[in-house]
Amino acid sequence: MMDEAAFLEQYDITAYRAPIATVDMAIFTVLEEQLQVLLYRRGEHPHKDRWALPGGIIDVGVDVDLEAAARRKLHGKTGVASPYLEQVATVGNGGRDPRGWSLSVLYFALLPAEGVTLSHGWGAAQAQWRPVTEDGVDMPLAFDHTELLTAAVQRLRGKVAYTALPAHLLGEEFTLSELQRVYEILLGRKIEKSAFRKRILDAGVVESAAGRKRTGANRPAQLYRRRQSASSHLFPRNLATGDL
Amino acid sequence: MMDEAAFLEQYDITAYRAPIATVDMAIFTVLEEQLQVLLYRRGEHPHKDRWALPGGIIDVGVDVDLEAAARRKLHGKTGVASPYLEQVATVGNGGRDPRGWSLSVLYFALLPAEGVTLSHGWGAAQAQWRPVTEDGVDMPLAFDHTELLTAAVQRLRGKVAYTALPAHLLGEEFTLSELQRVYEILLGRKIEKSAFRKRILDAGVVESAAGRKRTGANRPAQLYRRRQSASSHLFPRNLATGDL
DNA sequence: AAAATAGTGTCTGTCAGACACTATTGC
DNA sequence: GCAATAGTGTCTGACAGACACTATTTT
């Protein structure tokens, strides 16, 4: 009979043909009144010169865990360290990558457009924001990234009406009007102002910050910031006008 | 300059130290008026003799995709081929498995207790249903399976009030009273009958089946069955009495 | 008739949705 | 004052939640 220490001694990890393990990122922002996603043009095989979601192979020597791998990819492309990050799903099969059976963990990130400096990183020819139309982007993508992007967009859109997630698309401080505008862009329709404000404030997902924002020939607006609970909070009912 | 075919030709998949890739299953049923989860006692190292969620290493030679791997594990333990299956999350880090950096994709399955014959499968000393109390089970589990189970239970509980998922815990045909009872068990509280029936029927997630069920000295109940849309449907508002 | 569960009808408080109104700034 | 946006108040219809009622079976 063998104990666990002895078992591990003789265990050969390379005896198993493991799948390729990767992380892919759908990085969203709101820019020019549109939801946009960060894509880069692949500079290496496979799918060289095609547009793709940022991502890549998990490095078990560098990444302490899955989320660290995701943050590493994100930081490399945007320079942003700690945006809102959420795991969407994992896909895995023998056909999605010509290199063999591969498994990809998909994350989405939300970040404010200001302060982001896109850098190519190695292996990427270009990186740029592309507007999201309906559930995707109007260009073919490498691998199964079209499907991955659709899944990420649907997850995001599905949560908009029930959570305070869109607040992460704005900077530290923002006005309720700005927040409402982001909701409207994500939902693709107008929201009734009074109901929106009541529900956001009642939910306690934002707190007022000192100071007001003055932009033009009009009444200045109170500034707010996210509260800690903001991301996880589920509104008891729908937030925006109209169901779903 | 190399084209893609030439690239793949010289590409050596074993040059990368990939994580161990596994699938774990939280298999739920309702038995004896309680939510129960299927556990098995490990017959091999590591964590020999500890209770664990069914699962194991993905076999890229056998499993065409991730879900196939999950169904293979499920079928091996229960003999059930096609229950409700949903991906919950993926965890990965260097410390959760003594064999090395490992990555586990967690699924949960819902199935009716009738007709399930538990079999050990190889590598398992015993398999049995264990009641779920609060967010877990009252025994230590192997690896990080306590956390995995908690995640699965929370996902299930979180969706109960907004979806028709609990219908998958019953057989082909069931009465509305039986369905209501399952909801009550999962939510841990009574639901008002009239409201429950109105919302289930209005949502159109079940359809009446021919025949009625007669059990005792009382009025027989109409039988219903799930409709195709049942699993994905989101109720516009909460289904059960009381929020969340 | 009694017991037991199936199934329906009605009332009420709450809240989403609509809309109109007041407030505060620059010009 | 006028334009423009911030922010509030009020009415109404719909529905969740509570509760009481009717219906159908066996014993």
UniProtKB/TrEMBL annotation, chains A, B:
Residues 212-244 are annotated as: Disordered. It comes from the Bacteria. PANTHER family: ADP-RIBOSE PYROPHOSPHATASE, SLR1690 PROTEIN. Pfam families: NUDIX, WHD_NrtR. Residues 25-134 form the Nudix hydrolase domain. This is Putative ADP-ribose pyrophosphatase. Residues 167-225 form the NrtR DNA-binding winged helix domain. One of its GO terms (molecular function) is catalytic activity. InterPro entries: NUDIX_hydrolase-like_dom_sf (IPR015797), NUDIX_hydrolase_dom (IPR000086), WH-like_DNA-bd_sf (IPR036388), WH_DNA-bd_sf (IPR036390), WHD_NrtR (IPR054105). It comes from Magnetofaba australis IT-1.
